Amino acid sequence: MPPILFWFLATLAVLAALGVVMQSNPVHCLLALVLTLLAIAVLFIGQGAVVVGFLQAIVYAGAIMVLFLFVIWLLNVPVESGSTGRLAAKFLGAVGVAALLAELEVFWVPSHLQVKAAGQVAGYGAIDALSQTLFSEYLVAFEITSVLLLVAVIGAVALARRTTDAETQQRPENSARTEKAA
Amino acid sequence: MVQLSWLMELSAAIFAIGVAGFLARRNILVMFMSIELMLNAVNLAFVSLGSRMGTMDGQVIVFFVMTVAAAEAAVGLAIIISIFRNRQTVNADDLTLLKW
User: Fold this and answer.
1) How many domains does chain A have?
2) Is residue A15 one of the residues assigned to a domain?
């Protein structure tokens, strides 16, 4: 990956990330987030992580973001007007975030991380290398992930579904209340 | 050749922006998007370190993070829909039922 491409993508990702945080219309925030995700996906591919990069573009920037978009439309969220929150809290938050950034810059230097640099073997990042690691070393985690997704689907349906009037009547506490009211 | 330190600094910058957004914004949906930003910053660090070490483990972990993010988004957005249905707001400052 040529450095000029990296700098272009890095600038794009940071500007779009700032766009997520600073825009007042949630739909615009979401579009900026999609831009960040796509820039990061291209960075993944540039690192040799081809499959993960395409997964990022398809699953993350595609599916998950469309889910967000549908929820924004469904809720009909109004555009925030003016600034919200206390000024003191924002100031302290800015100081805290600056401290966090400084800390990350200090501790994430590669000399601290002690990375043992090794060359990439042929086929690195391709789907066969990924799946061989996934289905041998991480098989248990992979199986547990399927349970997690099942639970998430059931939980999401249970939380978001609207109870009908008939069901509300059937609940013992509600039926007792309606009888009392009657 | 892209230096590892550049990638780590980009990752740190996006993570910090995500934290700032989570703290500063009061719209629950935008707070959620900030969480996604933080997850992606960490994903970038995983992939960069993994590619330098020549192992696939970083990419497998990114795969798992994506799955967990999908599950988290599904459940979290369902909770937001449920809150909006009951309270007609997505402003985190209005949801003070558990505040002492």
Assistant:
1) 2
2) yes
